[in-house]
Amino acid sequence: MLHEYPRPKKIVESDFKWKVLEPQLVRDVVMKLSSSRSEDIYGLSNYVFRQIVDAILLPLTGLINSVLTQGVFPDSLKYCKVTPIFKKGKKELPENYRPITIIPILSKIIESCMFKQLYEY
């Protein structure tokens, strides 16, 4: 019966370390977001973040650096807004809809910053 369970994966040692982000990099990530006005579950949009990025840049950079150094991604940023979009056919049938998921804007920004470092590694 024990043979039915997968064995633990081998732990691979790595010299990868998260680097502290500079505000300019965070600003670049925000400015590369589309200018969509679709709101996430917190009522924030890419458009809004692009408009206010200079006013919140230092605290935003500090938040992202805390996520990286502490190794904890906030649970509140793991929730998404899912909207059903009608494709075609009868509107009464659920299979005629496709889900559109709107990820929290802060989550997108943090993930983009993480991706940049991982990709460069």
From TrEMBL:
Protein name from the UniProt record: Reverse transcriptase domain-containing protein
Source taxonomy: Eukaryota, Metazoa, Ecdysozoa, Arthropoda, Hexapoda
